[in-house]
Every structure is written in structure tokens, then in C-alpha cells.
Amino acid sequence: MKDITVYHWKTPEEGKAQYPKFVKDFQSTLKAMRIVVEPGGIERFLGDAPGPRPRDAADRAEWIHKCDQYQKKKDKIEDYCTTALGVLEKSFDYGTTPWNIVDKAASKPANVIDRDWTYRRRIEACWQALKNEYQPSTSVDLRQLKDQINKLDDSGPGGFETFQSEFHRLHAEIMATGVADAVTERELNGIVRDGIKNPFIWINVAYNLYKDNDNAPWRATFAAVSTALTSFRQKGFDPYAEAKSGPTLNVNTITANVANTAPAKTSHPNKKRSGNFHRDGSGKFSKQAKTTPTFTPNHADTSSNVNTNFNPPSTPSTPGESPNRCTRCWQPNSHSYKICSEVKCSCGHTLNPGQVICLNYDNHPPTMRFLRKMPRFMETALQALKKTRMPTTRKMPTPDPSRRNRNDSSRKVSVMTAQSSEEIHSAPSGESLDQWD
């Protein structure tokens, strides 16, 4: 048995906050013996009792065998309960309130004889006493849990994965309160919808889910974002890289999105070549097999597919200038936009975390621009960024009282961001970057 986690609950509020984690830790420590504290666990293990002694002597042998097997199971349950009670007593410091609750509940009531006070009855009494004291169940507890789940979003440490994990944890705790209609599906849908703060994910994934249905199911959102993230990361791009403690990719292996400014012999810019091409270390292109992005049908628009085979920026005008530029900050170095931590572009314009292209790109000098067309996903992000930053006199639609009010100021511009994405998505597609030599 692994080490027992010891809890120190000085106040009831602290115990209620940690109670769900305590239950998970306790069950994990017990392993197969966890059935003694799981609802219906013991009954499932024991199965049906043999019943009364049969009158027919021919049936008694089988009945006796069943009684023997049933008693062996009861003895095993008693052993399980003995171990579980010992683990429970060691889960709290001696003399603390939860320890005293367990100690008191384990004491034999005066109206029960010794042989009937089994370890099964003891662990059940102790477990119920802790549950009554610490499991969130009141309206105050529910309000605190709902306040926590409403504050969740994907902008904190851990990005989308932490957001999704915490959502499931708090949802389970809310349901465990037993309060009828503790949280509705519409509320949960709105929480997940408003929790998607990452601009790239909102433009390329979430918008496609919510443009026609502001109450799209939260499970569908989680599934769509998870699928898209897998696809993006397989291509070497992590939209939540800023939310992690450090770069998750080896910088020495990242070359596709580091803009190579070395002069390249190119044919007419409007000429297309079939197939998918990749520039090798010598500057030559070699043909490689095409890959098909794995997007769900809800966001299969090709404009949201990330292509990391970037065309290089323009040739440096100064002899000896570094041949590599980051396509986020456009500084002459070898890092990529995926791990770029610069706060300003080379042009002096401010860069925000998660921003993949400078807002002032259109005014960049020739040495800080792509030789040919900007990558499609960067173009989408730039156009959306322009929409959110430019003043507008457009009359906003009248709010629908039935729709959930979005509190975060950044969500107020999400409609304009999504509209710009839709305009770009519906525009005639330009030449594919991976078809140029």
C-alpha cells in the first residue's frame, strides 16, 4: 500500500474545499479495497445471499456450498474494512477535528452488542460522519463551487488542459452536493463558451461551433478543441505555448517557422507547382507526401489549418545580416514565433502574448516581410486583430436577455473577431504556400 496522504483541516471551510481530493486520495490508497466506501460496492462484491435452508435434501448440498462461499466473501469484506479504518485514522493528525470525528464515530454505541459492532459498521459510520461534516451540500457550498467554475478559463497556467480538467472536477463536486438542478446544461455551455479566451482557438475552432448556436453543447466544444490541438501540435504549433512553464519543443528542431532570408531562385510568383514541397538545409525544395489535417467536421474550413512550411521573408538589404528572422518579432535571430518571448516587434510595435504576427505588418519595410504570400493562418489572425483594434461605428445587435451575459471585456469583441474570420474564410482562397518553389 502506498504512502497515506495526511490532511490538516483547521476549519470546516478548509475541509470542504479539500474533501473531494481527500476522497480520491483515500480510494486510491485502498486500491481494490475501495469498494468498502463506494456506494453499493460491498453489495456488488457479496452478490445475492443464499436464502433460507431448502426443504428438499437434494438441494441442501448446493445451498451449503453457496453459504460457505458467501461467508468467505463476508470475511474478506471484514478484512477490507479493518484495513480501511486504519488508513482513515492515519489520514488526519491526532487530536484534530476530523480525527476526533472519526474516533467518535468508530466508538460502539451503548445499544449495540460487541459482536454486532463489526468493522464494516465502524467504517460505514466513520465515512458517513466525515461526509456529513465536510461534503459540500448546502446552498452556500453550492454557491462557492459555482463561483469557482464560472471563473475558469483557458488563459491561466496549463492552458486548455487545465481549464478542461478543473471544469470536470468542479462539475463533479457540484453534482455531488445533491442539490436539485444545481447547475443547468445551458449554464455549463455558457461557462465553456466564455472560457475559451485564446484568440487563435476562438477564431479557428470555437467560432465555427458558436456562430449558428450560442448554446452549443460544452462536451462538443471540449472534443473539438482537443482534436484541433492534437492536429496543431502534430504540425509543431502549440497555441497555448505561452501558458506553459517553458518551451515544449526543442528549439534546434524548429526550422519550419523560422523565416530564412537567404536569397532563393524562384520562378514567376504566380506560377504554381503541384504537390507539397519543403526547403532543405541547402535552400533547395524537395517533394514530400501531403498530409491531411485531422479536424472535426465542425471546424474543417481549410483556412484554419496551420501550415508551418512558411515562405521566406525578403532578402536582407545589408550584407552580412543574419539570414534568419522570427516571423513574430522579425528580429534577426534563429528562434521561432512558437517560442518567441519578445514584447516588441523590430518595427517598435507592441506584441501581446499569443500574438503570432505584428499588427503593424502592413507597414513593415521590405526586409521585414515575406517574399510571397503571408501564411493563411497568420493572415486570418492579423485580420481578426485589426478588427478588434480598429474603432467602429457599426451598430451592435440588441442583446438577447435569454443569452448569458459575457463579463470579460475581451469576449465583447469576440463577435467582431469571429465576423472577420468568417469573411476571410469565405473569401476566394489564394495560392497555397506549400506549392511555391
Average pLDDT, all residues: 74
Helices and strands, in N-to-C order? Answer: HHHHHHHHHHEEEEHHH
Class from helix and strand fractions: mainly alpha
Taken as a percent bin, the fraction of beta residues is: under 5%
Radius of gyration: 31 Å
Question: What would the principal axes of the Cα set say about the shape?
Answer: elongated
- Strand line-up in the sheet with most strands: 1-4
End-to-end separation in angstroms reads: 62 Å
The main pleated sheet reads as: 2 strands, antiparallel
Helix content: 40-55%
| SS field, number of helical segments | 13
Count of DSSP strands: 4
- Low-pLDDT segments, ≥5 res: 245-322, 392-396, 406-437
Defining key terms:
437 residues; mainly alpha; two-stranded antiparallel sheet; 13 helices; 3% strand
Compile the SSE list and pairings.
Elements: H1 12-30, H2 41-46, H3 57-89, H4 97-106, H5 119-134, H6 139-150, H7 159-176, H8 185-195, H9 199-210, H10 218-234, E1 258-260, E2 276-279, E3 285-288, E4 324-326, H11 376-389, H12 409-412, H13 414-426
Antiparallel strand pairs: 1-4, 2-3
Helix pairs in contact: 3-5, 4-5, 6-7, 8-10, 9-10, 9-13, 11-13
